[in-house]
Specification:
The structure is a single chain. The chain is α+β, with helices and mostly antiparallel strands and 193 residues long. It contains 6 helices and 8 strands. Helix 2 crosses helix 4. The structure holds flavin mononucleotide. The site of flavin mononucleotide has 15 residues, from strand 4.
Length: 193
Protein backbone atom coordinates (compact mmCIF):
# COMPACT_ATOMS: atom_id res chain seq x y z
CA UNK A 1 0.00 0.00 0.00
CA UNK A 2 1.31 3.46 -0.83
CA UNK A 3 1.69 5.90 2.06
CA UNK A 4 -1.25 8.16 1.14
CA UNK A 5 -3.57 5.17 0.81
CA UNK A 6 -2.37 3.87 4.17
CA UNK A 7 -2.85 7.29 5.80
CA UNK A 8 -6.37 7.61 4.40
CA UNK A 9 -7.30 4.13 5.60
CA UNK A 10 -5.78 4.73 9.03
CA UNK A 11 -8.83 6.23 10.73
CA UNK A 12 -9.90 6.00 14.36
CA UNK A 13 -12.04 2.86 14.25
CA UNK A 14 -14.27 2.21 17.25
CA UNK A 15 -16.35 -0.75 16.03
CA UNK A 16 -14.78 -4.08 15.15
CA UNK A 17 -15.47 -7.69 14.19
CA UNK A 18 -14.73 -8.85 17.73
CA UNK A 19 -14.25 -12.48 16.75
CA UNK A 20 -11.37 -11.59 14.37
CA UNK A 21 -8.36 -12.07 16.59
CA UNK A 22 -4.96 -10.42 16.14
CA UNK A 23 -2.07 -12.79 16.62
CA UNK A 24 0.53 -11.90 19.26
CA UNK A 25 3.20 -11.96 16.53
CA UNK A 26 1.39 -9.12 14.71
CA UNK A 27 1.12 -7.09 17.93
CA UNK A 28 4.87 -7.61 18.40
CA UNK A 29 5.50 -6.43 14.83
CA UNK A 30 3.69 -3.18 15.68
CA UNK A 31 6.09 -2.63 18.60
CA UNK A 32 9.08 -3.63 16.46
CA UNK A 33 8.13 -0.85 14.00
CA UNK A 34 7.67 1.64 16.86
CA UNK A 35 11.05 0.56 18.27
CA UNK A 36 12.98 1.95 15.29
CA UNK A 37 11.36 5.42 15.21
CA UNK A 38 12.90 8.74 16.35
CA UNK A 39 12.96 9.74 20.03
CA UNK A 40 14.15 13.07 21.55
CA UNK A 41 17.82 12.63 22.65
CA UNK A 42 17.28 8.98 21.65
CA UNK A 43 16.03 8.34 25.21
CA UNK A 44 13.40 5.74 24.19
CA UNK A 45 11.29 6.04 27.36
CA UNK A 46 8.32 3.87 26.29
CA UNK A 47 7.17 0.40 27.21
CA UNK A 48 4.11 -1.55 26.05
CA UNK A 49 1.65 -4.11 27.34
CA UNK A 50 0.16 -6.35 24.64
CA UNK A 51 -3.21 -8.01 25.20
CA UNK A 52 -5.30 -10.26 22.97
CA UNK A 53 -6.75 -12.54 25.64
CA UNK A 54 -10.59 -12.29 25.54
CA UNK A 55 -10.86 -12.48 29.32
CA UNK A 56 -8.42 -9.57 29.85
CA UNK A 57 -10.05 -7.68 26.94
CA UNK A 58 -13.35 -7.94 28.80
CA UNK A 59 -11.76 -6.49 31.96
CA UNK A 60 -10.06 -3.59 30.16
CA UNK A 61 -13.11 -2.44 28.19
CA UNK A 62 -15.11 -0.74 31.02
CA UNK A 63 -12.17 1.58 31.76
CA UNK A 64 -12.25 3.26 28.33
CA UNK A 65 -14.25 6.31 27.20
CA UNK A 66 -15.41 6.39 23.60
CA UNK A 67 -16.16 9.15 21.10
CA UNK A 68 -16.94 12.10 23.39
CA UNK A 69 -18.61 14.08 20.59
CA UNK A 70 -21.20 11.36 19.95
CA UNK A 71 -23.40 11.86 22.97
CA UNK A 72 -25.95 9.15 22.18
CA UNK A 73 -23.34 6.37 22.03
CA UNK A 74 -21.47 4.78 24.94
CA UNK A 75 -19.02 2.75 22.92
CA UNK A 76 -19.09 -0.48 20.95
CA UNK A 77 -21.60 -3.21 21.81
CA UNK A 78 -20.56 -6.75 22.73
CA UNK A 79 -19.55 -8.36 19.42
CA UNK A 80 -18.11 -5.08 18.08
CA UNK A 81 -15.44 -4.55 20.72
CA UNK A 82 -11.66 -4.57 20.18
CA UNK A 83 -10.00 -7.97 19.94
CA UNK A 84 -6.65 -6.63 21.16
CA UNK A 85 -5.14 -3.76 23.11
CA UNK A 86 -1.74 -2.15 23.32
CA UNK A 87 -1.24 -0.09 26.47
CA UNK A 88 1.46 2.50 25.89
CA UNK A 89 3.54 3.38 28.95
CA UNK A 90 6.11 6.11 29.54
CA UNK A 91 8.84 6.63 32.11
CA UNK A 92 9.15 10.32 33.12
CA UNK A 93 12.43 9.55 34.93
CA UNK A 94 13.92 8.72 31.55
CA UNK A 95 12.35 11.60 29.62
CA UNK A 96 10.27 14.70 30.32
CA UNK A 97 9.22 14.84 26.65
CA UNK A 98 7.05 11.72 26.56
CA UNK A 99 4.39 13.26 24.32
CA UNK A 100 6.69 13.19 21.28
CA UNK A 101 7.43 9.53 21.81
CA UNK A 102 3.77 8.69 22.45
CA UNK A 103 2.68 10.39 19.23
CA UNK A 104 5.30 8.82 17.03
CA UNK A 105 4.74 5.35 18.50
CA UNK A 106 0.94 5.67 18.28
CA UNK A 107 0.97 6.57 14.60
CA UNK A 108 3.52 3.85 13.83
CA UNK A 109 1.45 1.21 15.62
CA UNK A 110 -1.79 2.27 13.91
CA UNK A 111 -0.17 2.40 10.48
CA UNK A 112 1.25 -1.08 11.00
CA UNK A 113 -2.20 -2.30 12.07
CA UNK A 114 -3.72 -0.73 8.95
CA UNK A 115 -1.09 -2.29 6.70
CA UNK A 116 -1.96 -5.71 8.18
CA UNK A 117 -5.69 -5.25 7.49
CA UNK A 118 -6.59 -4.18 11.03
CA UNK A 119 -7.31 -0.79 12.57
CA UNK A 120 -7.70 0.90 15.88
CA UNK A 121 -8.16 3.98 17.96
CA UNK A 122 -6.11 5.75 20.60
CA UNK A 123 -7.99 6.11 23.87
CA UNK A 124 -6.48 8.84 26.02
CA UNK A 125 -9.60 9.17 28.09
CA UNK A 126 -9.40 6.14 30.36
CA UNK A 127 -9.31 5.19 34.04
CA UNK A 128 -5.55 5.03 34.50
CA UNK A 129 -5.67 4.00 38.17
CA UNK A 130 -7.92 1.02 37.45
CA UNK A 131 -5.82 -0.02 34.45
CA UNK A 132 -2.64 0.25 36.52
CA UNK A 133 -4.16 -2.07 39.10
CA UNK A 134 -5.66 -4.52 36.63
CA UNK A 135 -2.50 -4.90 34.55
CA UNK A 136 -0.13 -4.67 37.54
CA UNK A 137 1.84 -1.88 35.91
CA UNK A 138 4.82 -0.62 37.95
CA UNK A 139 4.26 2.81 39.56
CA UNK A 140 7.20 4.41 37.71
CA UNK A 141 5.40 3.95 34.40
CA UNK A 142 2.50 6.23 33.41
CA UNK A 143 -0.17 5.21 30.95
CA UNK A 144 0.05 7.39 27.84
CA UNK A 145 -2.95 5.89 26.15
CA UNK A 146 -4.65 2.61 25.35
CA UNK A 147 -4.63 1.60 21.69
CA UNK A 148 -7.71 -0.43 20.82
CA UNK A 149 -7.27 -2.81 17.89
CA UNK A 150 -9.33 -5.09 15.72
CA UNK A 151 -10.82 -5.74 12.31
CA UNK A 152 -12.75 -2.54 11.53
CA UNK A 153 -16.51 -2.81 11.12
CA UNK A 154 -17.48 0.73 10.24
CA UNK A 155 -17.29 3.19 7.39
CA UNK A 156 -15.43 6.42 8.08
CA UNK A 157 -15.19 9.35 5.67
CA UNK A 158 -13.13 12.50 5.81
CA UNK A 159 -14.66 15.86 4.97
CA UNK A 160 -13.52 19.46 5.08
CA UNK A 161 -14.02 21.51 8.26
CA UNK A 162 -16.81 24.07 7.86
CA UNK A 163 -17.31 27.10 10.14
CA UNK A 164 -14.39 25.92 12.26
CA UNK A 165 -16.44 22.95 13.52
CA UNK A 166 -14.05 20.03 14.05
CA UNK A 167 -16.56 17.72 15.79
CA UNK A 168 -16.82 14.27 14.21
CA UNK A 169 -20.38 12.94 13.72
CA UNK A 170 -22.42 9.95 12.53
CA UNK A 171 -25.09 10.10 9.84
CA UNK A 172 -28.36 8.14 9.62
CA UNK A 173 -26.56 5.30 7.78
CA UNK A 174 -24.11 5.00 10.68
CA UNK A 175 -21.25 6.39 8.59
CA UNK A 176 -18.71 8.21 10.78
CA UNK A 177 -17.65 11.64 9.43
CA UNK A 178 -14.35 13.26 10.40
CA UNK A 179 -13.83 16.93 9.45
CA UNK A 180 -10.24 17.86 8.62
CA UNK A 181 -8.96 21.41 8.16
CA UNK A 182 -8.07 22.24 4.57
CA UNK A 183 -4.52 22.33 3.27
CA UNK A 184 -4.98 26.06 2.67
CA UNK A 185 -5.74 26.52 6.39
CA UNK A 186 -2.64 24.63 7.49
CA UNK A 187 -0.03 26.43 5.43
CA UNK A 188 0.63 29.77 7.06
CA UNK A 189 2.92 30.93 4.25
CA UNK A 190 5.07 29.55 1.52
CA UNK A 191 8.48 30.93 0.78
CA UNK A 192 9.25 28.80 -2.21
CA UNK A 193 10.71 29.14 -5.68
C1 LIG B 1 -3.72 10.98 21.70
C2 LIG B 1 -5.14 10.68 21.26
C3 LIG B 1 -6.09 10.39 22.20
C4 LIG B 1 -7.40 10.06 21.81
N1 LIG B 1 -8.31 9.70 22.78
C5 LIG B 1 -9.53 9.26 22.39
C6 LIG B 1 -10.46 8.80 23.38
O1 LIG B 1 -10.22 8.84 24.57
N2 LIG B 1 -11.65 8.30 22.95
C7 LIG B 1 -11.96 8.23 21.60
O2 LIG B 1 -13.04 7.72 21.27
N3 LIG B 1 -11.11 8.68 20.66
C8 LIG B 1 -9.91 9.20 21.01
N4 LIG B 1 -9.01 9.63 20.06
C9 LIG B 1 -9.37 9.57 18.63
C10 LIG B 1 -9.66 10.97 18.05
O3 LIG B 1 -10.97 11.34 18.43
C11 LIG B 1 -9.53 10.89 16.51
O4 LIG B 1 -8.16 10.78 16.19
C12 LIG B 1 -10.12 12.11 15.82
O5 LIG B 1 -11.51 12.14 15.98
C13 LIG B 1 -9.79 12.15 14.33
O6 LIG B 1 -10.23 10.99 13.68
P1 LIG B 1 -9.22 10.16 12.80
O7 LIG B 1 -8.21 9.55 13.73
O8 LIG B 1 -10.02 9.13 12.08
O9 LIG B 1 -8.55 11.13 11.87
C14 LIG B 1 -7.74 10.03 20.43
C15 LIG B 1 -6.75 10.34 19.48
C16 LIG B 1 -5.47 10.67 19.88
C17 LIG B 1 -4.43 10.99 18.82
Amino acid sequence: MFLKELLLKNRSYRRFHQDETIDASILKEMIENARITPSPSNLQPLKFVLVNDPEMNRKIFPFLKWAGFIKVWNGPEEGERPSAYIIMLGNRKISTHLEWDYGIALQTILLTATEKGFGGCAIGSCDRDKLHQLLEIPKNLEIGCVITLGKPKEKIVLEEVKDDDIKYWRDEDDVHHVPKRSLKDLILKTVTV
